[in-house]
Amino acid sequence: MQYSRAGAVWCAIYLSAVFCLPSAAADEMVQESRCVKGSILLNHRLEKEYVEDDFHIFYSLQGRDALKYQYDSSGSGVPDSIKDIVGQLQAAKYLYSSVLGLCFPLQQKIYAQARQINVYVLQLPKGNGLAFDRVAAETMSDGRQLPCGLKFVLNAALEPARNITPAHEFFHLYQYGYAVFKQNGIWREWRDG
Question: CA distances (Å), 14 to each of 2, 19, 60, 101, 172, in order?
Fold first, then answer.
């Protein structure tokens, strides 16, 4: 199944229309998610970190998780692909929060223990990305510990200037904050094969 901009916008509009209505009862039902020990990075070492606002992008320029697109047109030491990810996330944050009125994930009660949004750029066997619905503190293979945060993974072979996967995976963090009950069929993504 291909993701489309129209599909992402439709989901954001639906969220805004259905779930943004204030409800004291709904607010009382939402419990704070505790920070769990993550395991996704135990076999990975991402030696680079680029921080912009609440986004922490962890990536590597060498080894099995090396970025496929490492060109740095400005000579700043940060690859264009990483800057493209951040630019896309900032634009998506503006669309989702400022235009559509959705609550930014780090401001949602369920994610109160999250301090940042961690984006891990890893070599994936298939797919372009994967988002997680739990607040987690990750530890890399070299023992480096990362603070509690929300997280999603992007494929190191992704060319973000030509692909909206970063915005798509980021949207899932909004979605998971609103969808207290995971079984809600509205949010399922069906894939063929």
Answer: 19, 8, 37, 11, 14
Q: What is the pLDDT of residues 108-132, one digit of tens each?
A: 999 999 999 999 999 999 999 999 9
Task: Note the Cα 42 to chain centre separation in Å.
Answer: 19
Q: Please state whether the predicted TM-score (pTM) of the whole model is above 0.85.
A: no
Distance (Å, rounded) from C-alpha 168 to C-alpha 109? 22
Q: How far apart are the two ends of the chain, measured CA to CA in Å?
A: 10
**For helices 165-178 and 5-19, what crossing angle results, to 10°?**
20
pLDDT in tens, 75-105: 999 999 999 999 999 999 999 999 999 999 9
Are 44 and 56 spatial neighbours (Cβ–Cβ below 8 Å)? no
Whether residue 100 contacts residue 15, with contact meaning beta carbons closer than 8 Å, is answered with: yes
Q: Per DSSP, what are the bridge partners of residue 154?
A: 121, 129
CA dist., res. 58 & res. 192, Å (int): 30
- DSSP E strand boundaries for the chain: 36-37, 48-52, 55-59, 116-122, 129-131, 136-137, 149-155
